[in-house]
Design goal:
This protein has one domain: 2-Layer Sandwich (Alpha-Beta Plaits). With about 70 residues, the protein is α+β, with helices and mostly antiparallel strands. A hairpin with a 5-residue loop joins strand 2 and strand 3. About 15% of the residues are buried. The strands form two sheets. It has a two-stranded antiparallel sheet. Strands 2-3 form a two-stranded antiparallel sheet. Helices cover about 15% and strands about 20% of the residues.
Length: about 70
C-alpha cells in the first residue's frame, strides 16, 4: 500500500495534482507554506488508488508515494 506524502514547503500552488487526480481527493488547502503558497491535502485518503498521477504531474517534486511504513532512511 502506498500513501500520498506532500512536502508542503516545495509546493508552488500550481494545482496540477488537484486537476489530474482521477479520484478528485486532493484539494488546495487554506494554509500557506514557508514560500507563501497554498498547498494541497487529501480529502479522503481511503479513496486513494495509489496511481501516482499527482506525483507525476507535480513539477516541484512535492508529492511522493512511499510504501506505507517506509522511511527516508530506506
Amino acid at each position: 500500500m502506498f500513501v500520498v506524502k506532500i512536502t508542503s514547503y516545495l509546493c508552488k500552488d500550481c494545482g496540477y495534482c488537484v486537476k489530474f487526480c482521477p479520484k478528485h481527493i486532493l484539494e488546495i488547502g487554506t494554509e500557506r507554506n514557508s514560500r507563501g503558497f497554498f498547498y494541497p491535502h487529501l480529502t479522503d485518503a481511503s479513496a486513494c488508488i495509489s496511481c501516482a498521477i499527482c506525483a507525476s504531474m507535480c513539477p516541484e517534486g512535492a508529492i511522493e508515494l512511499p510504501a506505507e511504513g517506509e522511511t527516508d532512511n530506506g
